[in-house]
Amino acid sequence: MSASLVRRPTEGAAIAAASRSRRTLPPVPVVLADLLAAYARGDRRGVNLCAHLAVRAAEGKVGEQ
To answer: b or e along 1-23 (b: 16 or more beta carbons within 10 Å of the residue's beta carbon)?
Structure first.
């Protein structure tokens, strides 16, 4: 039995593909709920991802304008 090679995009190709379309961000309360759930489960990577997503989702909605 031979293992077939799975083609994976490079980081540059993945970023280019993701930047071609505008993606809507979820509401901040949803992201914060996911952040708390990841923290409660001890998922450090999930906490990191949710924290960064919360900042992106809140961009332009906090502070003085």
So the answer is: eeeeeeeeeeeeeeeeeeeeeee
Model confidence pLDDT, tens digit, residues 21-38:
777 888 889 999 999 999
- Left, alpha or beta for 25 (phi > 0: left; psi -120 to 50: alpha)? beta
CA distances, 52 to each of 2, 49, 58 (Å):
41, 5, 10
For the full predicted model, state whether its pTM sits above 0.70.
Answer: no
Nearest Cα to Cα of residue 60 among 25, 33, 32: 25
The H helix count followed by the E strand count for the chain is: 3, 0
